[in-house]
Sequence to fold (65 residues):
Amino acid sequence: MKANWISCEDDLPDDSREVLCTDLCGWFIGCYENNEWTCHATGYAFDSVITHWAELPALPEEDEA
Fold:
């Protein structure tokens, strides 16, 4: 699956919604809140500049047997 990356210059996600984000060196799960990107894993602001973000994919549906 290819992520549909959105430039932070063009648009930002709604507050407190977790998204996939990148600083072009790696990708992370984070959220944009109060004009700041924070890391999902640590809860701290990123040290690097987040340049793009993408929606997280939906969870797989469980097969009913």
User: Anything to note?
Assistant: Residues 30 and 43 are 8 Å apart (CA to CA). The mean pLDDT is 91. The beta strands are 6-7, 18-22, 27-33, 36-39, 52-54.
